[in-house]
Each structure stands twice: as structure tokens, then as C-alpha cells.
Design a protein that fits this description.
Blueprint lengths: L12 H7 L3 E3 L10 E8 L6 E4 L5 E6 L23 E6 L4 E5 L9 E4 L5 E4 L2 E3 L4 E2 L3 E5 L4 E4 L11 E4 L5 E4 L11 E6 L3 E2 L3 E2 L9 E4 L5 E5 L5 E4 L4 E3 L15 E4 L11 E5 L9 E5 L7 E3 L8 E7 L5 E7 L11 E6 L4 E7 L8 E5 L5 E5 L10 E6 L22 E2 L4 E5 L6 E7 L4 E2 L2 E2 L4 E8 L3 E5 L10 E9 L8 E5 L1
Parallel strand pairs: 33-41
Antiparallel strand pairs: 1-2, 2-32, 3-4, 4-5, 5-6, 7-8, 8-11, 9-10, 11-12, 13-14, 14-15, 15-16, 15-17, 18-19, 19-20, 20-21, 22-23, 23-24, 24-25, 26-27, 27-28, 28-29, 30-31, 31-32, 34-39, 35-38, 35-40, 36-37, 38-39, 40-41
């Protein structure tokens, strides 16, 4: 596919991913220094264009037509998109390694997707036509309780390659994407559950497709790329501040990634954003900006081991960032980047996370699972074919120094819902050994950017067989919704997550 490059729990889940789904190890030695990659025996039945982790620990996969034009032999000729023509949507259950496939009545290819505060998934925009691409005005909500898609009110204009951002008040902000006539949508719209779409709020600039957007603790939304000039959007006044900072890398970071680094009590919830890779040919460089500074400036961070376009960056429960996939040249498997890198924001250094087995290029995805492993899937450099093999990365924190599996701390009891700046109790027999408690928002990656992930650290006190934890101080630090609650012991080993609803 030729794309526009200027824009672009259950607490037994970990063992069932390994035992029930089946894995094929790509290395015999387990390492507590670099982790371990394995290939699952189950193959992906549809092209995983966009995925989202659900509150039940399963994964929603949305392909739509799956980068398979009706003009190409063997591709869907139109709706319904589903199992009969290798398209549509699916649920993957890591516990069993099985897929449940669904048909869609419109083409959600190249949409945006975030998880709403109530745990349902919001699917925004998609594909109206191929060559040239035009955007759909449609949106839908997926309910993981009954596995149904329900269409909601149409937007004012279409969006293909939009970015959706969940705000502190539970609304969804959408921006950019190609309209139903193929022009770039310059308007911001807000979706409110129960009442639909707001009016349009037009910007004075033309955004790239799939802009990299992050909700900051001050309530503003930071645009970090892929262009060289950063911007801020104030949702209260619906105004933009442009030229907030200029990147040091001289070119656009096309299909590079962007991550809001962990917000914790220890760093006073200071917002720092890291951009990684991108460009064609790609760069291995990274940059970091501190948005709490009086005059924020991008500073070069350490470089990755390989250049990466179409990469993924995934926050782990210990606050480190796993950089995977990509290539030197876009959609070019001969220049693939297989060496994974692990960024430590405390030491500001990268270390090796070994190498995965399969090229992960355009339309690849990476997702943190509740068992604290990372699932890697997809790769679609040409229409009509994609990488079906799925891989699992078990980070070094899951191993002892002798290579055996580490003993995890456990959560034996936790509330189903928690509040802001209020105490809640978590039962654990390992209370005396716990060094950190974190909330990780379930991810929703597509096109080298996770539109929903964030990690928020929590303050706590230790009791006998329990922890008294204080919820995040405000909604702008942790928007309402379902989070994975992880406990980590003094050796840095994470528990299996419990899902809690923050409201």
C-alpha cells in the first residue's frame, strides 16, 4: 500500500499464555539480563491493523478490509467484512490462545481507537474508499461484555488516520485524518457518551495524519510529532499554541513513536515525553522534552541500537520502555530491525532486550498484557499479505539470576473500583517486600503509536498482609477508566495485574 508519508485475570493469565496458547522458544537460555522472546504456535487470522486491551484481559483486533482493496484478487469486495473473506474484527484470548471472529458492516481500516471510561472501546473513523483514500464519518462502540459493535452518531466529516485521545472528563477528542473527499480534517471534535459529537473546532494549521497526542497533568494536550514543531491544545478554550518547541532531529519522524513517560509521586507527576525513531530512511535517535519547564525544549536522548520506522514503544510495569520492530527503509523487510531495546528513564540509557524473530513493519502492534509480558503481532508491507506469527516477550524482571522464573508477588484481594486521592486496600502476602504499586492504562496501538497507554505511580503504606494505597491525585494525571494494577517487589518483579476501574 502506498501511504502518505508526510503524516502519516484473572490472576492466572501469565501461565496460561505460555501453557495453553503454546509457544515455540527462539532461544534455549532464559536470561534475567535481557529477557526472552518466544513465538506462539497460534497464527493471527486477520491483519491486526489496530488492537486494544480489554478489561477482561482479552485483546480486540480491528482490521476492517485489512489493507486489502476490492480491486485486488482475493480481497473483500465490500461489506460485510468478516471471517469469510479474512477481514473484519476478532477477539484474541491470551488465556486459551483462541480467536473469536466478527463481521463488520463498514470498513474500519485505519481508524483510531481508545478505551472509554466504562471499559467499552470507541472506534473512530475508517476507510471510505481506496486509491485515493477517503475517510469515513462513522464511529462505533465495542462492548466486551457481549462482543457487539454498535454504531453511534456520525462525525461532521470523515477521518482516515485520525488520532483519538481520552480526556480527563471522559470525553474523546479526535483530530486529523482524511475527510470523505480526501482533504485533511483540520477540526477537533469531542465525543461524549450518551450525547454524541460536539460542534467542530477548527485549527489554524494542517496537522499530519495520525498526530502523536498526549494528555498532560495540566489538562492540555501535547502534540509531539511527527513534524519538527510541537504544539499544545487547550480543550477548555479550544485553542492551539504552536511552536512550543522544535525537535533537534532535522527531519520529520515519520512513523516514529511517542511515549508519555511514567507519572509518579517520586517525579512529582512531571510530564516528560519521549519520541523515538521515524523518518525514511529511519533514525535511531530519540528526544525527550520536559513539559513542566518554563520554556520546554527537546533534548537528545540515547540512541536505539537500530533505526526504526513503523516501530512500537511499550511501557512496562517497572516504567521502562520497550522499543521493538521497524526498519531502516519503510515497508522494506531487508532492512528490518529485529534487535529490541529497553529504555530506562531513571538512568536515561538503553539496554538490549534481545531480538525477536519476525519483521514487524507497517501495521505491526505491540501490547503490554496483564501478565507483564509484551505481545508482538502483525507486519504488512504489501497488500494482500501480512505476518501471521505472534510473539511474546518475557522481560528480564520475570527471571532469576540463574535463568529460572522469578517468584512473583501476588494480589489476593483488590477492589473492583477506586477513586481519586482516596485510600483503598489491596491484600497481598508479600506486602513487606513491595517497592512500588502502579496503574497502567490498557494500550491501543496502531501505526507506530499507542493512543491510550500511560503509567501512573501510586503512594502506599505497608500493613500486615495488605497495602493501603492512595488513588491518583487528579483526572488529568489518570483519566477515568479501567487500569491494570501491578505490584512490584524489591527485586523489580511484577505481580500479575488486577483490573480496577478508576472513577
Amino acid at each position: 500500500m502506498k501511504r502518505i508519508l508526510s503524516c502519516c485475570y484473572t490472576h492466572t493469565l501469565i501461565s496460561v499464555v505460555i501453557l495453553s496458547a503454546g509457544v515455540i522458544p527462539i532461544a534455549t537460555a532464559q536470561s534475567n539480563g535481557t529477557g526472552k522472546w518466544s513465538t506462539l504456535s497460534t497464527l493471527m487470522p486477520i491483519n491486526p491493523i489496530h488492537v486494544a486491551l480489554l478489561k477482561n484481559g482479552k485483546v480486540l483486533i480491528v482490521a476492517g478490509s485489512g489493507n486489502c482493496s476490492a480491486a485486488q484478487t482475493g480481497c473483500p469486495s465490500g461489506p460485510p467484512y468478516g471471517p469469510s473473506n479474512g477481514s473484519g474484527a476478532a477477539i484474541w484470548d491470551p488465556a486459551t490462545g483462541t480467536f473469536t471472529q466478527f463481521s463488520l458492516n463498514w470498513d474500519m481500516f485505519c481508524n483510531s481507537m481508545v478505551v472509554l471510561a466504562d471499559g467499552r472501546v470507541f472506534i473512530n473513523g475508517g476507510n471510505l474508499q481506496y486509491d485515493p483514500f477517503h475517510g469515513s464519518q462513522k464511529s462505533a462502540v465495542f462492548d466486551p461484555v457481549n462482543n457487539t459493535f454498535t454504531d453511534v452518531q456520525n462525525m461532521a466529516h470523515g477521518r482516515w488516520y485520525p488520532t483519538a485521545t481520552l480526556l480527563a472528563d471522559g470525553r474523546v477528542m479526535t483530530y486529523s485524518g482524511l475527510t470523505e473527499t480526501g482533504s485533511t480534517n483540520q477540526a477537533v471534535e469531542f465525543f461524549t457518551v450518551g450525547s454524541g459529537w460536539s460542534q467542530q473546532y477548527f485549527s489554524t494549521w494542517t496537522p499530519p495524519l495520525y498526530p502523536r497526542m498526549h494528555l498532560l497533568p495540566n489538562g492540555k494536550i501535547f502534540y509531539s510529532g511527527p513534524s519538527t514543531s510541537s504544539a499544545l491544545f487547550d480543550s477548555a478554550t479550544t485553542t492551539w499554541t504552536q511552536n512550543v518547541a522544535q525537535t533537534n532531529y532535522g527531519n520529520r519522524r515519520t512513523y516514529g513513536s511517542s511515549v508519555l513517560l511514567p507519572l509518579t509521586p517520586a517525579n512529582n507527576y512531571t510530564p516528560r515525553v519521549m519520541i523515538l525513531g521515524g523518518g525514511n530512511p529511519a533514525t535511531a535517535t530519540t528526544e525527550i522534552i520536559n513539559l513542566s519547564a518554563a520554556t520546554p525544549q527537546w533534548q537528545f536522548g540515547p540512541s536505539m541500537s537500530q533505526p526504526r520506522i513503523e516501530m512500537n514503544a511499550t511501557i512496562l510495569p517497572n516504567g521502562k520502555v520497550l522499543a521493538t520492530g521497524g526498519s531502516l527503509y519503510d515497508e522494506d523487510a531487508t532492512s528490518k530491525s529485529l534487535k529490541a531495546d529497553l529504555y530506562d528513564p531513571v538512568s536515561n540509557t538503553f539496554s538490549s532486550a534481545r531480538a525477536n524473530a519476525f519483521a514487524r513493519l507497517y501495521h505491526s502492534v505491540a501490547l503490554l498484557l496483564p501478565d507483564a509480558t509484551v505481545w508482538l503481532a502483525g507486519g504488512n508491507p504489501s497488500r494482500g499479505s501480512y505476518e501471521q506469527h505472534m510473539e511474546i516477550y518475557k522481560p528480564a524482571y520475570l527471571f532469576q539470576s540463574n535463568g529460572r522464573l522469578a517468584v512473583r508477588p501476588s494480589i489476593t484481594g483488590a477492589p473492583s473500583s477506586i477513586g481519586y486521592a482516596t485510600q483503598f486496600t489491596v491484600q497481598t502476602p508479600d506486602a513487606a517486600t513491595i517497592s512500588s504499586a502502579v496503574l497502567v492504562r490498557p494500550g491501543s496501538p496502531t501505526h507506530a503509536f499507542d493512543q491510550d497507554q500511560r503509567l501512573v505511580g501510586l503512594s502506599f503504606t505497608v500493613g500486615s498482609g495488605s497495602l493501603t494505597i492512595i488513588g491518583p491525585p487528579q483526572r488529568t494525571i489518570a483519566p477515568p477508566g479501567y487500569y491494570m494494577l501491578f505490584l512490584l517487589n524489591k527485586s523489580g518483579v511484577p505481580s500479575i495485574a488486577r483490573f480496577v476501574q478508576l472513577r
